[in-house]
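We were asked to recover a plausible sequence for a given structure. The inputs and outputs are reproduced exactly as logged, with field labels preserved.

PROBLEM: sequence recovery
POSITIONS: 422
GIVEN STRUCTURE:
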């Protein structure tokens, strides 16, 4: 169980140690012993949500698990019911993840607000801390369900999407204790939300390279995800001559190489085939059906859309040459998202006040801030991670950098001036 540690100093010393201790505690809440795997709406997600809710309650804050599985806690300002600055990140993870992606932003937000609570310091606005449940989009084909719900952009059709065990998102929500019928009502009125600020590990090597603990995010790359189904003909691996085969897996392999070639031809665009399933999946059977995923990202939406169209054309041509059927479905589409210039400036000012040289950088990874940008002005603070490694158990940050992230966040909150969303 997470505990509240009473710091002995009021200047924020000790944030780093507490953040790291809490991250270790959360890292024990996994669906896979020996690995950090906490998929959306899984038993480990429930444990992590309950653990956080308990800690918020210990701080005397209202905290609920909402209809889409987000943990939402609220620290009132001078006047109860005032519009809120939302801070936080996500607590779902990829399979065999690191301990910091998402979780760092939630724990840092919690630790910063703990300091305000400890000092009895109220602000002219409320603060809400949110632990989103579905940033990674690993369990279901859709992603950012939690932040989309708050932004009023949750698509009810996604409730019918199924995980690899055939469980629908709607069914998983009910098992988690949520009422999917109430997701629509989670949409916030923009008048009640002043902004969203997310602390997150960089997941890349730039800050380490520049010897900086934190950096100020300017924009987040857009992304498209596809599910590609290839239908060939299953057959006996010993009897069907090579010339008469319609091998779905060999066709998919050719498609994957074509996708990699296409991405390599372009600056800044990246494309990844991250998951593949072949059926029937036996050593002596020609694969008859394959499903694989494609993830395409770019800071330039027009470039990304062109690349996705080119990928579809190249796959169709390979399918035709190899006499297999092809079905391509877009499972996720997010435009590149720009952090609000006034929030960027305010985050940067907090970085400077903490005596760190300010560096602005874009994000190659996706974040809840992309979905929240539909609702309110957003900003992000990146924290250096060792070797830029992420989505990997080797993901690592230092307590000193976590301490600096909490100091910058707290400083940002204390100086925050609402900006107009436009
Ligand atoms: C989330 O980590 C993503 O960018 O895929
Ligand atoms: Mn993340
Ligand atoms: Mn991630």
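RECOVERED SEQUENCE:
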């Amino acid at each position: 169980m997470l505990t509240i540690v009473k710091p002995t100093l009021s200047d924020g010393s000790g944030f780093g140690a507490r953040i790291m201790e809490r991250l270790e505690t959360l890292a024990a809440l996994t669906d896979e012993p020996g690995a950090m795997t906490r998929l959306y709406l899984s038993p480990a997600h429930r444990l992590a949500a309950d653990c956080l809710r308990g800690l918020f309650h210990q701080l005397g804050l209202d905290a609920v698990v909402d209809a889409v599985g987000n943990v939402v806690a609220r620290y009132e300002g001078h006047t109860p019911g005032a519009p809120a600055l939302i801070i936080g990140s996500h607590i779902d993870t990829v399979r065999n993840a690191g301990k910091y992606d998402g979780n760092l932003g939630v724990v840092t937000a919690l630790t910063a607000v703990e300091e305000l609570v400890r000092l009895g310091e109220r602000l002219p606005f409320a603060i809400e801390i949110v632990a989103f449940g579905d940033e990674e989009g690993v369990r279901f084909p859709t992603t950012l369900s939690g932040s989309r719900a708050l932004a009023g952009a949750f698509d009810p059709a996604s409730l019918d999407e199924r995980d690899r065990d055939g469980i629908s998102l709607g069914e998983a929500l009910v098992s988690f204790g949520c009422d999917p019928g109430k997701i629509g009502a989670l949409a916030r009125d923009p008048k009640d939300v002043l902004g969203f600020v997310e602390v997150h590990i960089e997941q890349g090597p730039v800050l380490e390279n520049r010897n900086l603990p934190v950096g100020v995010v300017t924009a987040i790359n857009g992304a498209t995800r596809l599910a590609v189904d290839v239908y060939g003909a299953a057959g006996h691996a010993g009897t069907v001559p090579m010339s008469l085969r319609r091998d779905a897996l060999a066709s998919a392999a050719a498609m994957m190489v074509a996708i990699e070639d296409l991405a390599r031809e372009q600056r800044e665009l990246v494309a990844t085939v991250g998951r593949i399933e072949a059926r029937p999946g036996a050593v002596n059977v020609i694969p008859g059906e394959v499903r694989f995923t494609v993830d395409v990202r770019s800071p330039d939406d027009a470039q990304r859309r062109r690349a996705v169209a080119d990928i579809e054309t190249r796959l169709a041509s390979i399918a035709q040459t190899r006499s297999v059927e092809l079905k391509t479905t877009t499972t996720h589409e997010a435009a590149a998202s720009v952090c609000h210039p006034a929030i960027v400036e305010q985050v940067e000012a907090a970085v400077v006040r903490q005596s760190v040289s300010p560096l602005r950088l874009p994000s190659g990874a996706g974040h809840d801030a992309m979905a929240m940008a539909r609702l309110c002005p957003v900003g992000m603070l990146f924290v250096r991670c060792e070797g830029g490694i992420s989505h990997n158990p080797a993901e690592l940050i230092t307590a000193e950098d976590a301490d600096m992230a909490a100091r910058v966040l707290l400083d940002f909150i204390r100086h925050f001036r609402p900006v107009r969303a436009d």
